Amino acid sequence: MDTPVATWQNSELRKLRGAPVAAHSAYKRGLQSLASAGKIRSGLVDGENTESLLMARTSLAERMSRLEQQRAKLAQQEAKLKADERKQRTRRLVEAGTLIERAGLLDLEETALYGALLSLAADAGDRAKIAGWTKAGKTALDQATVGKNATTEPLIVIFPAPLPTPFATRLRGAGLRWNKVMQHWEGLADHDVVAALAAEQSGSVRRVHSAAESDRERNTKS
């Protein structure tokens, strides 16, 4: 059975578990009084139990802090992975929509388009058909690239006044970009398409020739 002194000591230690550090000085003064009366050994006055309790509290707080930091880091990494997955999925959906438009299926009714895609999905496990689709798609994309390169050329477009934002968007769609240094629009684009656009805002279009082409033109004129 605990003595009154032991009971008091245990009670005070339980209080200290949730108390601020300043409360330990009051506990220590109580130990000093008991030591002076000869009721406890003087070693306790030096704070053996108090220091042990303080170390235990500090160690637990540090572990909890590290655990919270790890949880926050894991949550941040998980959020980044989910954001990357959403971006990849969005990019893939945009690519799929572009391919549907290129294939000439964009004008189909929603149900007709869905039915056509379902018929493709039914054969998606057939390797021979997938190989045929791959070959046909590559051929069509290569031909489109060659045709596009054949009709585009380096152009510079100059406008007499600032352009409205919607019109600037149309220029970018035609393949041009704004040169902040030279203060003009430039890029590889179809001359006829750009000329028609430039005429809407009183702009002038100039073809950009390479040095070799310029030399040939000068030699021809001479």
Contiguous uncertain segments of 5+ residues: 39-48
Radius of gyration, in Å, reads 40 Å
Fraction of residues in helices?
55-70%
Count of helical stretches: 8
Specify the CATH architecture of the domain at 152-221.
2-Layer Sandwich
Q: How many E strands? A: 4
Q: What can you see in these coordinates?
A:
68% of the residues lie in helices and 9% in strands. With 222 residues, it is of the alpha+beta class. Among the domains are: 4-46, no CATH class; 152-221, Alpha-Beta Plaits (2-Layer Sandwich), CATH 3.30.70. The chain is flat, with a radius of gyration of 40 Å.
Topology diagram in text:
Layout: H1 4-16, H2 23-36, H3 48-102, H4 110-122, H5 127-151, E1 152-158, H6 165-173, E2 177-179, E3 184-190, H7 191-200, E4 204-207, H8 211-221
Antiparallel strand pairs: 1-3, 1-4, 2-3
Quick structural overview:
The chain is built from eight helices and four strands, in the order αααααβαββαβα.
How would you describe this structure in keywords?
222 residues; alpha+beta; four-stranded antiparallel sheet; Alpha-Beta Plaits
